[in-house]
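Project outcomes to date are best conveyed with an example. Our students and postdoctoral researchers have been running inverse folding experiments weekly, and each run begins with a structure described purely in tokens. The record below, which covers 520 residues, was selected by the lab manager from last quarter's runs and is presented without edits.
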């Protein structure tokens, strides 16, 4: 028995010694949001690296690919051709992909099809199939390179449930990212004994404008920094979601280095780590951000893309309505503006057509610094005006809750997509006053009194109606779990499509804002 044990030990040592030191290059892209027409520089760089490095290049995508451009939207609706996202993922091909919240928001019918077309594992360990209680996607993958085992664990921010209606994610549960990271890193270490532990998180670096208790059931929306500094085991974490490029060295509870990287968004560059592995030694890691603006464009990639662009071109150049005057999203900071007020008109008239009366509308510009020129509006203008596939919802709010909602929106007006303004009421803003004392609601828009105790039907987009931006949570004071109890109605279609249909029926849009509010 001693001889057998000795021989096993000797074989293990010899096998370890036979594994040569190697250096791998690991690249991440994230949050492309369908901007593949801006990705050709990245594609050229990736193909060149693939040709030079072969299997020593590991290519990761970190999600949020399925929403953001007209041609991606068209591809999502097109069942006759492979989806653009799966075509891009398969083009290089990527080694691993992670799920993003905007991929879930594309709807289960879309993301199931896209990921079935993808030729690589798609990860998200904390997205749970409620029928089986098991991860719906692959939780992690082991990549073997030159005798070394590289573990990649995928996780998604569970705040999907506050932005995406149940109808788009039926049968799926989204568990807390921090707890899932702790569970799975232990499982992987005990079962797989990897030489390198990589996190692939669609979750931002640290909380932004988030005032939630530490024991909140969803944990942190942006949890990457917390996981790196509090859960030992990771050598390298790639992350996305917050669109902020970063390459930084942190330290875990054991005093060991953890390297975190985010390539940014919309094809602005790559996040690169060079990892030298040697048996019995800690991985040696160097990290950098690689801008690709100066690189050549991959002509073969553009050729692959062209049929998708051609199909989308006909759709997005379809004429919709006449816009009498030019409009700008930034005008909202000065008071009522047509950019927002046409959304109000659309929202209130759309729900009225569904047989539901809306007393009040809430809406914000979803992008800053945007202008649409007067003239014939095309479908593509509505992707500028309303870039996301939110649906429409009606909620029951008391008069006091309406006031608290607007108070919070005015306090949080940067970023601009949190700056909801109201229609259906008349109100004044005293800018110099503190939050809670800025808003004076004078009355309803039709001249009738506004009642703080009365319950009103308030129409807004689904992102806001599910707690997005924290207007309902931090502004009004509702718990996340009670938000759904206030929902009166939800649309089955996305708001942009409803907006286009409304404008087409109208023919000529308005030339004056509603003037429901003013800054004193």
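After processing, the design step wrote out the following sequence:
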């Amino acid at each position: 028995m001693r001889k057998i044990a000795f021989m096993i030990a000797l074989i293990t040592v010899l096998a370890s010694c036979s594994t040569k030191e190697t250096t791998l290059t690991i690249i991440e892209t994230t949050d492309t949001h369908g901007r593949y027409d801006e990705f050709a520089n990245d594609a050229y760089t990736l193909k060149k690296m693939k040709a030079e490095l072969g299997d020593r290049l590991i290519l990761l995508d970190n999600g949020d690919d399925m929403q953001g451009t007209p041609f991606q939207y068209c591809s999502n609706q097109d069942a006759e051709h492979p989806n653009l996202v799966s075509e891009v993922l398969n083009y290089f091909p990527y080694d691993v992909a992670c799920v993003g919240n905007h991929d879930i928001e594309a709807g289960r019918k879309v993301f199931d099809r896209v990921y079935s077309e993808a030729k690589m594992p798609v990860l998200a360990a904390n997205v749970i199939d409620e029928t089986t209680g098991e991860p719906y996607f692959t939780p992690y993958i082991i990549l073997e390179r030159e005798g070394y085992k590289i573990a990649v664990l995928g996780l998604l921010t569970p705040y999907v449930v506050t932005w995406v209606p149940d109808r788009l994610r039926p049968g799926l549960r989204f568990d807390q990212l921090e707890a899932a990271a702790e569970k799975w890193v232990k499982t992987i270490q005990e079962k797989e004994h990897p030489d390198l532990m990589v996190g692939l998180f669609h979750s931002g670096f640290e909380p932004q404008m988030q005032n939630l208790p530490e024991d909140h059931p969803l944990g942190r929306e942006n949890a990457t920094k917390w996981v790196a500094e509090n859960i030992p085991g990771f050598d390298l974490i790639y992350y996305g979601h917050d669109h902020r490029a970063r390459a930084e060295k942190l330290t875990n509870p054991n005093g060991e280095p953890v390297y975190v990287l985010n390539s940014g968004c919309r094809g602005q560059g790559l996040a690169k780590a060079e990892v030298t592995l040697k048996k019995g030694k800690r991985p040696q890691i160097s990290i950098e951000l690689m801008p690709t603006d100066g690189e050549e464009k991959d002509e073969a990639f553009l050729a692959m893309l062209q049929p998708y662009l051609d199909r989308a071109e006909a759709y997005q150049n379809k004429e919709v309505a006449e816009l009498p005057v030019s409009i700008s999203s930034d005008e909202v900071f000065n008071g009522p503006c047509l950019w927002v007020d046409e959304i109000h008109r659309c929202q209130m008239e759309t729900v009225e057509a569904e047989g539901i009366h809306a007393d009040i509308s809430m809406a914000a510009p979803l992008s800053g610094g945007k202008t649409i020129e007067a003239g014939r509006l095309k479908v593509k203008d509505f992707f500028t005006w309303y870039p996301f596939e939110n649906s429409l919802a009606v909620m029951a709010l008391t008069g006091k809750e309406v006031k608290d909602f607007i108070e919070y929106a005015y306090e949080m007006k940067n970023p601009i997509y949190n700056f909801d303004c109201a229609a259906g009421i008349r109100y004044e803003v005293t800018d110099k006053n503190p939050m809670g004392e800025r808003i004076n609601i004078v009355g309803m828009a039709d001249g009738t009194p506004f009642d703080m105790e009365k319950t009103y039907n308030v129409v807004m987009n689904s992102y806001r109606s599910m707690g997005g931006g924290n207007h309902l949570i931090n502004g009004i004071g509702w718990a996340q779990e009670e938000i759904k109890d206030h929902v009166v109605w939800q649309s089955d279609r996305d708001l942009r499509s409803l907006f286009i249909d409304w404008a087409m029926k109208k023919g000529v849009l308005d030339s004056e804002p509603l003037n429901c509010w003013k800054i004193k």
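The chain has two domains: 20-312, 319-519. Residues 319-519 form a domain with the 5'-nucleotidase;  domain 2 fold (CATH 3.90.780.10). The training component of this project remains on track.
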